[in-house]
C-alpha cells in the first residue's frame, strides 16, 4: 500500500466514524426514535384565565383571586405514567388549596372552563378530582407502590413505570424547605389558614427534621397516575413518596384520552412540573441537590449571590 493509499484509507475510516457519531448525536437530539430523549412534560396552553405559564410551560402561577386556576397536562397520560409537580408558593388569606386528578375533557377543544375543578369539572361526569388536604387524602387507604404491579413497581430504589424508570427519591420533597409566602390581593379573601393548620388527622407525616409536612405545604410533591383493572382505570394520588388509593375507580379509559388536571385553588399560588422521565433543568436539579445536603438556616451562610439564596429558599 502506498502512502497515498494509506492516507485515503485512514480518511475513509475517520469519515465513517464521524458519520456514526453524527447519527448517534442526531438520535440523542431526538431526530431518531432510537435513544431519543423524552420530551419535557408541560402544561397545556389552554387554562383558567388567572393562570400564567412560564419556563417553557412547566411552571403555573395564579396571578390573582383564588379561582379560575385550572390547568391540564399538555399531553394525555399513559397508563402508569406519573404526572408529578411541586408546590412552590402559597398565598395567605384563602380557604382550601390544590385540587388534583384526571379528566377526559380535552383541553385542545377550548371548552368553557368553570371557576373551580370541584364541583365544576366533576359535574360533567368525565373528571375525577381530589382536594389535596389531610382530611381528604386520609379518606383513602395508603398502599404500597408494588400493589400497582405490573404497571408500576419498585425495586433497587427505582420506580419502574410504563414510560421509564425513575429514582424513588424523585417522589420525595426536597429537604429543609421553608414556606414561600405570597400575600392575598384582597379579592374575596378571608383570614383563615384552616386548610393548612388544622387538626384534621392524627396520622401525620413529618419530614426528617421532625417538622410537620402538610399536603399543601411549599415543597410538597404531588403526583397522579392511573392503572388498568378489568378494562377500567383506577386513579392513585402520590404525596411526598406515599401512594393513596384507589381514589377513583371505573374510569372508562377507552372512551377517550386521559389528561392530568390541576386546580391552583385557594392557598396554592404556584406549582412546577417535576420532570420525571426527561431531563430536568440544571437550575432545579442543583436546587434539589443542595437542599438535600444543606439545612435551611445554613443556606444564608453559603458564598452565593443573594438572588440564588432566595431561589434556594423559595423566596423568588
Automatic annotation (TrEMBL):
Gene3D superfamilies with a match to the protein in the record: 2.60.120.920
SUPFAM superfamilies listed in its UniProt record: SOCS box-like
Regions annotated as coiled coil: none
GO molecular function: ubiquitin protein ligase activity
Pfam families linked to this entry: Neuralized, SOCS_box
Entries under CDD domains matching the protein: SPRY_NHR_like
InterPro entries reported for this sequence: B30.2/SPRY_sf, Neuralized, NHR_dom, SOCS_box, SOCS_box-like_dom_sf
UniProt-listed GO biological process terms: intracellular signal transduction
Domain of life: Eukaryota
Domain NHR positions: 40-276
Domain SOCS box, residue spans: 279-316
Protein name: Neuralized-like protein 2
Taxonomic lineage: Eukaryota, Metazoa, Ecdysozoa, Arthropoda, Chelicerata
